[in-house]
Specification:
Layout: E1 5-8, E2 11-12, E3 15-16, E4 19-22, H1 26-34, E5 43-47, E6 53-58, E7 64-69, E8 75-79, E9 87-92, E10 95-100, E11 104-105, H2 107-120, E12 128-132, E13 137-138
Antiparallel strand pairs: 1-4, 1-5, 2-3, 5-6, 6-7, 7-8, 7-11, 8-12, 9-10, 10-13
Helix pairs in contact: 1-2
């Protein structure tokens, strides 16, 4: 497995009471992603090292934002270009933000992208990826 750790957020009020799992199994990763609800569980991070990781956030309404970096500078986001340029509100990392609708993908796409990254450290070829610097205008989650 390429991924060395799994970070799972769990927001209790303003506090993150999440946990870190070293050397996670695919079943642990899949379970953490499926538990994302956009309320108390809003972000999981699959880490390989300090600069290489994938984040999967959101979850409310079956909408997920998947982002990958290999150098902590350039970020690649999964996209569904059919969703156009409208904006939508999602809670990711405990923060409410306005995100382009095109970067929210369904659970199946998020799981496929996560599985490929977790196992090989690569971007899933069947997923459309775009390089992006700033995704959201972040505001208050509560």
């Amino acid at each position: 497995m390429f991924v060395l750790d799994l970070s799972v957020e769990k927001w209790v009020g303003p506090l993150d009471e999440g946990h870190l799992i070293d050397n996670p199994t695919w079943q642990q990763i899949e379970s953490a992603i499926c538990e994302l609800d956009g309320k108390t569980k809003t972000l999981v991070t699959l880490g390989a090292d300090e600069e290489t990781y994938m984040t999967i956030g959101g979850g409310e309404g079956g909408k997920y934002i998947v982002s990958v970096t290999f150098d902590n500078i350039d970020f690649y986001n999964s996209v569904d270009r059919s969703l156009g340029s409208k904006m939508e509100k999602l809670v990711v990392g405990g923060q409410l933000g306005n995100y382009p609708a095109k970067i929210s993908v369904d659970l199946q796409t998020a799981l496929l992208a996560a599985q490929t990254f977790a196992r090989s450290g690569e971007l899933e070829e069947s997923v459309t990826w775009e390089n992006s610097e700033s995704l959201a205008m972040v505001g208050s989650a509560r």
